[in-house]
């Protein structure tokens, strides 16, 4: 099958969820299909580009740099378009897309996430799939609940209205939509009645089990640390939950692991027992030496791949309900659910004090990931999706 994938970035190295999803999709599709990728680039390492080029029949790149200035956000409020859509708007990319579609014929187009939909929404003679993975309108709706001031609330409310309108009017013009979580799918189903919605839950690689020396009374949270929901989670745990842990376990350390920490996240390193790592060579290897993983997320949407990564190395996980959203894990067996600071802290303290309990949760969590959330399972889901879309819609 001839497949065109529209990407917002070169998906290598797969250091965040968006890149990881696309990279692992390529890793599977290259075995059976003729894949062309059109992607934005912003000074990517030639060696990284070469890896992706070796996985596709054709790779077309268009230079595009994201400019997230306050002034540009302000200007975006004067238009009907969501800020993210404007952020990824590029005339050269649109022209290259048009030329590519005139030059080559495809069986299926995978149109990328919400901000890339603008490049394929008007394509009429090829079956096409939109793959937002998350419901971005749900993301902004949740942001409203924690807006710090009236200006932030007004901005989030406006973006919520714009994104909801855009999701409704844009996704309904595709032949199918791919999501990773049922809560997000419910949002899109309400906005786009009749649109076929498929599920392709995110995955992770399962590294071999091995014994490593653990850092005593250590706790970690991971992710891309300039992403607002991750910033909120790190700050929330460090300021409202971790002091309760320290009161019971004075020697405890909290590791904030991940690339591009914001100024707010970097400032947490000034607090007693908090370590902000920035980029690490391998997140899973880093997490192996930690005793307890926490996912104190209050914002965001979709699945949290970070939880899969922690469970894949048999870490016991304490998570908010929202942090575990979109994954069919059993609370009380495969992770501990806690939504209030005192409850969350008590669960962390209990795990830090009981090696047997940590081992039990770690074992059950790893088994759950092995059962349902590997990249092989993700690829099988996508294989069914592209086959179904190509077969049902005839042009």
Any descriptors?
six-stranded parallel beta sheet; seven-stranded parallel beta sheet; alpha/beta; Rossmann fold; 2 domains; globular; 395 residues
Can you give a write-up of this model?
45% of the residues lie in helices and 15% in strands. The chain is of the alpha/beta class and 395 residues long. It folds into two domains: 2-203 and 375-392, 3-Layer(aba) Sandwich (Rossmann fold); 218-372, Glycogen Phosphorylase B (Rossmann fold), CATH 3.40.50. Strand 8, helix 9 and strand 9 form a beta-alpha-beta unit. The longest helix has 22 residues, at 150-171. It is globular. The mean pLDDT is 94.
Total E-strand runs = 13
| Number of H- or I-type helical stretches | 15
Fourth-level CATH superfamily of the largest domain:
Glycogen Phosphorylase B
**Low-pLDDT ranges:** none
Strand content: 15-25%
Main pleated sheet:
7 strands, parallel
Shape: globular
Q: What is the first-to-last residue Cα distance?
A: 15 Å
Secondary structure elements and pairings:
Layout: E1 2-7, H1 17-32, E2 34-41, H2 46-53, E3 58-63, H3 70-76, H4 83-87, H5 91-103, E4 108-110, E5 128-133, H6 136-144, H7 150-171, E6 176-179, H8 182-191, E7 197-199, E8 218-222, H9 228-248, E9 253-257, H10 263-267, E10 274-278, H11 283-288, E11 292-295, H12 305-312, E12 317-319, E13 336-337, H13 341-353, H14 355-372, H15 375-392
């Amino acid at each position: 099958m001839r497949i065109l994938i529209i990407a917002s970035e070169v998906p290598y190295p797969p250091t965040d969820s968006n890149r990881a999803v696309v990279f692992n999709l390529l890793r599977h599709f290259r075995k059976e299909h003729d894949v062309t990728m059109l992607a934005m680039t912003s000074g990517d390492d030639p060696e990284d580009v070469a890896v992706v080029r070796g996985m596709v029949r054709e790779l077309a790149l268009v230079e595009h740099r994201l400019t997230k200035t306050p002034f540009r956000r302000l200007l975006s409020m004067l238009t009907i378009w969501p800020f993210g859509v404007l952020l990824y708007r590029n005339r050269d990319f649109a022209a290259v897309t048009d030329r590519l579609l005139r030059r080559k014929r495809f069986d299926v187009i995978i149109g990328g996430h919400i901000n890339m939909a603008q490049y394929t929404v008007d394509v009429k003679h090829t079956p096409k799939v939109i793959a937002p993975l998350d419901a971005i309108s749900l993301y902004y709706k949740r942001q409203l609940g924690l807006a710090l001031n009236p200006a932030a609330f007004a901005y989030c409310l406006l973006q919520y209205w714009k994104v909801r309108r855009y999701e409704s009017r844009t996704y309904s013009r595709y032949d199918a939509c791919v999501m990773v979580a049922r809560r997000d799918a419910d949002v899109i189903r309400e906005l786009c009645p009749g649109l076929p919605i498929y599920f392709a839950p995110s995955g992770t690689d399962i590294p071999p089990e091995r014994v490593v020396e653990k850092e005593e009374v250590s706790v970690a949270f991971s992710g891309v640390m300039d992403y607002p929901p991750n910033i909120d989670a790190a700050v929330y745990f460090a300021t409202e939950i971790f002091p309760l842990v320290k009161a019971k376990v004075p020697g405890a350390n909290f590791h904030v692991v991940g690339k591009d920490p914001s100024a707010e996240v970097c400032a947490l390193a000034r607090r007693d027992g908090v370590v902000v790592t920035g980029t690490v060579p391998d997140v899973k290897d880093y997490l192996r030496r930690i005793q307890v993983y926490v996912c104190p997320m209050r914002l965001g949407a979709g699945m949290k791949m970070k939880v899969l990564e922690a469970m894949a190395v048999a870490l016991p996980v304490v998570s908010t309900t929202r942090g575990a959203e979109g994954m069919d894990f059993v609370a009380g067996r495969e992770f501990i659910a806690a939504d209030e600071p005192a409850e969350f802290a008590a669960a962390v303290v209990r795990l830090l004090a009981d090696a047997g309990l940590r081992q039990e949760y770690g074992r059950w969590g790893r088994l759950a990931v092995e059962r349902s959330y590997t990249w092989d399972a993700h690829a099988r889901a996508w294989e069914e999706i592209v086959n179904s879309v190509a077969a049902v819609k005839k042009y």
